């Protein structure tokens, strides 16, 4: 029955994707997409759908007084700051639009599988939360997932987020600490005050120091750092009084994150200890990493997801490490996997494109995983 539903729903799936793509949804500004998802689910017959304080659209099924809940989610936000609609275009092979893959296609697929559940009045074997969640991208800082885990604290036992290519499943999470670093100093006229301290120069020296850190050498871990943005100054003939940067470090290991945090704080203290420059630090994002408490359950989830993906794609499903909504449940010991259900390329660029033929494949993967929770 589900096979026929998928086959006959492709046109509707494409239409839903188009509607979602055209709704701007930068992180922290997902209200319109959340409202759309709520109204769409209610039009299918869903009861009890609500939007929480973090702008998650939540559809709880059989969750009242239930302490055994499984989550299926896909994030509503895009990495792009645009507040005007995007246009979905196609050449017959691909759909084109910023955010069309990450994660709008996953959201559309999950909603269409949810429609099947509603229309066929399927009964959940335990508590099921279907969530169009907010703030997965960048400085969204996983706000939506944090809210969900807070509101259902201790009750969520399994967690699946649909995000990424269906040739991989993320089984480890990458934690990160992100900072805005500002430098203030005297500055002045580039000729008349030559020799005065420059905020840009001081910031450059700080970056050089941060880039010279010796990374932790813990086996089977990876740690990185990056300055992603620098700005400041007044004009070409002004010694800058002010400059700032965005800096992050990442690791898939909690101890390595702590090492990088200690080194960063020591470096900032060192630079504030001499000269006329003053450095201030604002934390703009913290993504924890962690491991599941129930390793046996986690391993069985991995086995199931890989088998499901390989069944429908015919290719090996790789285990990867990523920074996703899974960071939050895993940091709390809850088994969580990030499952890819599309194929495309150019994510996080304005040339992003979605392989149209991948959508029914992704819908089959999503359906197999979700419908296992229903009678």
Structure, explained:
It is a single chain. The chain is built from ten helices and 18 strands. It has 375 residues and is an alpha+beta fold. The two termini are 13 Å apart. Strands 1-2-6-3-7-16-8-15 form an eight-stranded mixed beta sheet, sandwiched between helices. The protein has a four-stranded antiparallel beta sheet with strand order 4-5-18-17, with helices on one face. The chain has a four-stranded antiparallel beta sheet with strand order 11-13-9-14. The chain folds into two domains: 2-173 and 289-371, Aminopeptidase; 180-287, Alpha-Beta Plaits (2-Layer Sandwich), CATH 3.30.70.360. The radius of gyration is 23 Å and the shape is elongated.
Which terms would index this structure?
375 residues; alpha+beta; Aminopeptidase; Alpha-Beta Plaits; 2 domains; eight-stranded mixed beta sheet; 10 helices; 18 strands; elongated
SSE blueprint:
Elements: H1 2-8, H2 10-21, H3 31-44, E1 50-51, E2 57-61, E3 69-75, E4 89-90, E5 94-96, H4 100-119, E6 127-133, H5 143-151, E7 156-162, E8 168-173, E9 175-184, E10 188-189, H6 199-210, E11 223-232, E12 238-239, E13 242-251, H7 254-271, E14 278-287, H8 295-313, E15 318-322, H9 327-331, E16 336-339, E17 344-345, E18 353-355, H10 358-371
Parallel strand pairs: 3-6, 3-7, 7-16, 8-15
Antiparallel strand pairs: 1-2, 2-6, 4-5, 5-18, 8-16, 9-13, 9-14, 10-12, 11-13, 17-18
A few lines on this structure:
The chain is of the alpha+beta class and 375 residues long.
């Amino acid at each position: 029955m589900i096979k026929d539903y998928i086959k006959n729903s492709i046109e509707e799936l494409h239409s839903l994707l188009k509607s979602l793509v055209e709704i701007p949804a930068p992180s922290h500004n997902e209200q319109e997409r959340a409202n759309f998802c709520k109204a769409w689910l209610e039009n299918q017959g869903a009861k009890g759908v609500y939007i929480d304080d973090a702008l998650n659209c939540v559809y709880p099924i059989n969750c009242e007084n239930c302490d055994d809940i499984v989550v299926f989610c896909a994030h509503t936000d895009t990495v792009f700051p645009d507040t005007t609609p995007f246009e979905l275009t196609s050449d017959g092979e691909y759909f084109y639009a910023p955010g069309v893959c990450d994660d709008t296609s996953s959201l559309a697929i999950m909603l269409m599988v949810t429609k099947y559940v509603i229309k066929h009045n399927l009964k959940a074997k335990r508590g099921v939360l279907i969530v169009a969640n907010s703030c997965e991208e960048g400085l969204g800082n996983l706000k939506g997932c944090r809210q969900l885990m807070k509101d259902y604290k201790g009750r969520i036992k399994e967690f699946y987020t649909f995000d990424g290519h269906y040739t991989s499943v993320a089984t480890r999470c990458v934690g990160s600490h992100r900072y805005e670093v500002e430098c203030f100093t005297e500055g002045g006229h580039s000729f008349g005050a030559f020799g005065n301290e420059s905020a840009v120069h001081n910031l450059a020296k700080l970056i050089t120091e941060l880039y010279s850190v010796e990374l932790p050498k813990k086996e089977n871990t990876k740690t990185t750092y990056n300055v992603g943005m620098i700005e400041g100054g007044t004009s070409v003939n002004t010694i800058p009084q002010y400059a700032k940067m965005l800096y992050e470090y990442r690791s898939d290991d909690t101890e390595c994150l702590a090492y990088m945090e200690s080194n960063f704080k020591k470096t900032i203290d060192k630079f504030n200890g001499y000269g006329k420059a003053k450095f201030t630090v604002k934390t703009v994002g913290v993504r924890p990493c962690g491991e599941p408490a129930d390793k046996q359950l986690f391993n069985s989830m991995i086995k199931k997801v890989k088998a499901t993906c390989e069944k429908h794609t015919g290719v090996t499903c790789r285990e990867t490490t990523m920074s996703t909504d899974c960071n939050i449940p895993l940091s709390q010991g809850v088994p969580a996997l990030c499952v890819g259900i599309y194929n495309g390329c150019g994510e996080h660029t304005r040339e992003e494109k979605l392989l149209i033929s991948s959508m029914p494949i992704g819908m089959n993967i999503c359906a197999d995983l979700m419908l296992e929770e229903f009678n």
